[in-house]
Amino acid sequence: MMALDIGGANIKAAHIVGAGTAMHAWSHPFALWQSPGDLVRELAVVCGHAGAFDQMLVTMTAELCDCFATKREGVEHVLGAVDTVAAGRQVQVWSTNAGFMTPAQAHAHPWACAAGNWHALATLIARVFNDETVVLVDTGSTTTDIITLDHGDVRAVGLADAQRLASSELVYIGAARTPLCALGPSVQLIGTTYGVMAEHFATSADVFVLTGDCEEQPNCNDTADGRPLSRRCAAARVLRMIGADLELMAMNEAQALAHVFAISMRDRLAGAITRVIDVRMIDRIILSGSGAFLAQRAADRALPSVTQTHFADLFGKSASHAACAVALLALADHDATCRFMARRDRRGFCDVTSGDHTADTER
């Protein structure tokens, strides 16, 4: 089986290998909003890494891209591309109200399939930790999902994006693509309060390169100014947020400013976690996504005494970066779900590899 989580900036994929005792999981960068007509080609590239498979499982968030006039148009575009690449293979699409459905059903109920990836992951975690009250905090490159799971049931207040934004179950803070101007209106650096420029000068990727949470990527130019994702270029971008540069301020000041932005992101997520759980007693927090380190800091602040479990410790690091795609595989394969449940307290119980074509960091 091949599972795809098709987003606007990345395509996450997972593929069961052999008899299902191992899987590959990876993330493939693709700016769909810039080239929606290339989706078929990019999906073919992703599927080409998997080898043979006879079934495709799909979830998506790409329908939100502003290259589409409506979410319905976006869902139909994604489903059309999947149909082309599937080439006659069976396709199942995840929905937030009925689980897996056929492509025909998905076309008829596009809003049930729109932005449904979080629900697939939440459903899997709820089944695995079905004897506890759990909060799932999944931080990716762009957003964070915060979902309460109660003894096997997903207890989300909202299902659609607008509802989830209102309930704080969806927060537009991620570990790579968040524009720092969204963290204004001001920041305090070494005793001085600066207004934050309302310009797309820097992103959270720059922050976490400077804090050391993410590695430099000298060959990556997917940045606000098109320059490399190196420490020096990241410092210049972050300083530009307060009208400075590396001739006006030093590298250590850029690093200090990055920490200020990092704390702002942590605190906003911690506040959202507090609002979502309300007065519930929580047994465990599950942390996942390429930004799990940020999710952990927010959880430490919001619920410092609650047990934490990393998705990466259960399923592997690359699986955590493609957690929603991995969840689709587990939900479609009952035996796999049973294995996950039986061995949930063991580290590394499932051999999940990224493969040579995979980047360990998500953009």
List the helices and strands and how they pair.
Blueprint: E1 2-6, E2 10-17, E3 22-29, H1 39-48, E4 55-60, H2 71-86, E5 90-95, E6 99-101, H3 103-108, H4 110-113, H5 117-128, E7 133-139, E8 144-150, E9 153-154, H6 161-167, E10 170-171, E11 186-189, E12 192-195, H7 204-210, H8 231-240, H9 251-277, E13 284-288, H10 292-302, E14 307-310, H11 311-315, H12 317-321, H13 323-332, H14 334-342, E15 351-353
Parallel strand pairs: 1-4, 3-15, 4-5, 7-13, 13-14
Antiparallel strand pairs: 1-2, 2-3, 5-6, 7-8, 8-9, 8-10, 11-12
Helix pairs in contact: 1-2, 5-13, 7-8, 7-9, 8-9, 9-10, 13-14
What would you say this structure looks like, in words?
This protein is α/β, with parallel strands linked by helices and 363 residues long. It has a single domain (2-173, 269-353), classed as Nucleotidyltransferase, domain 5, CATH 3.30.420. Helix content is 38%, strand content 20%. The chain has 14 helices and 15 strands. The chain has helices at 39-48, 71-86, 103-108, 110-113, 117-128, 161-167, 204-210, 231-240, 251-277, 292-302, 311-315, 317-321, 323-332, 334-342; strands at residues 2-6, 10-17, 22-29, 55-60, 90-95, 99-101, 133-139, 144-150, 153-154, 170-171, 186-189, 192-195, 284-288, 307-310, 351-353. The protein has a seven-stranded mixed β-sheet with strand order 6-5-4-1-2-3-15, with helices on both faces. Strands 7, 8, 9, 10, 13 and 14 form a six-stranded mixed β-sheet that branches. The chain has a two-stranded antiparallel sheet with strand order 11-12. Helix 10 (292-302) links the parallel strand 13 and strand 14. It is globular.
